[in-house]
Specification:
Order of helices and strands: HHHHEEEHHH
Mean pLDDT: 95
Helix content: 40-55%
Shape: elongated
Strand order of the largest sheet: 2-1-3
Structural class: mainly alpha
Distance between the termini: 7 Å
Largest sheet: 3 strands, antiparallel
Radius of gyration: 21 Å
Number of strands: 3
Length: about 260
């Protein structure tokens, strides 16, 4: 089973960096063990947030979780393609001269640490909360006849992005929830509360002002709804942005498999 810590042994990291330096490992042949290590880490966040793995659900919940899980694998493939490219780029200094293996190892390990420990933890937390909110959306859809409205809650102190949304109330079917439904940035912990018809809706004037303010500060990758779009990481995420020459390779999940079971 996947764990909530990134697990890739130091020996493997050393072999990866040495392989990139010697040319035996290239971005167009991503090591599968690294691909699965990243996927397993993020998948553990997905399952934690959703409340279980594939064997724990049936019906529409299983269908949604299956799609979210596939998105995690696709994200891992895209991340590793970009990561290997960046590490590979460290092989030459500003003058275009090849650095020593010792220097490359230092640079490569620091880069690997940043991608997988620093950024990786943020991605893991995003997977947890986005999965929670995707599962929540299933419940929202199931009960919208009796609880037809949603209210945005920042739960205490809020960042500059989410603060204007505190108390924002709109019908479940309002298009606003396609772009400002949590998670709206890294480390976002906001939620929505289900309301009945007695809850006063945000006026059209206030709604436009609030949404304009919020969406102007949001990164494009977060302007989505994990439950409606059935993804954890949007294709607007920089990892999915590749050069035109690599677009066909990206369509094959960067040459990596999409396992049907854990």
């Amino acid at each position: 089973m996947p764990k909530d810590t990134f697990n890739y042994p130091q020996k493997k990291i050393d072999e990866l960096i040495e392989g990139i330096y010697t040319g035996s490992i290239i971005p167009y042949d991503i090591p599968e063990d690294l691909y699965f290590a990243v996927a397993d880490y993020l998948k553990s966040g997905l399952y934690k947030g959703f409340g279980g793995s594939l064997v724990d659900f049936t019906g529409k919940d299983l269908e949604l979780l299956t799609e979210l899980r596939e998105n995690i694998y696709m994200f891992s493939a895209a991340k590793n393609f970009q990561q290997l490219q960046q590490i590979q780029s460290l092989m030459f200094d500003e003058k275009g001269e090849r650095v020593s293996m010792e220097e490359f190892s230092k640079l490569g390990e620091a880069t690997f640490e940043r991608w997988n420990s620093d950024w990786g933890r943020s991605e893991y937390n995003t997977a947890v909360h986005s999965a929670q909110m995707a599962s929540k959306w299933q419940e929202i859809e199931r009960t919208k006849d009796v609880l037809p409205n949603l209210t945005y809650s920042t739960i205490g102190d809020a960042c500059d992005i989410c603060a204007p949304l505190e108390g924002f109330t709109a019908p479940v079917n309002d298009s606003a929830w396609s772009s400002i439904y949590p998670t709206n940035h890294f480390s976002c912990l906001c939620v929505v509360l289900q309301e009945d018809n007695e809850k006063e809706l945000t006026s059209k004037t206030d709604k436009k002002e609030i949404l304009d303010s919020v969406e102007s500060k949001m990164q494009p990758m977060f302007k989505m709804n994990s439950g409606k779009d059935r993804i954890i990481f949007s294709t607007e995420h920089p990892y999915f942005k590749v050069d035109k020459k690599d677009s066909e390779f990206a369509k094959t999940n960067f040459g990596l498999p999409l396992p049907e079971s854990d």
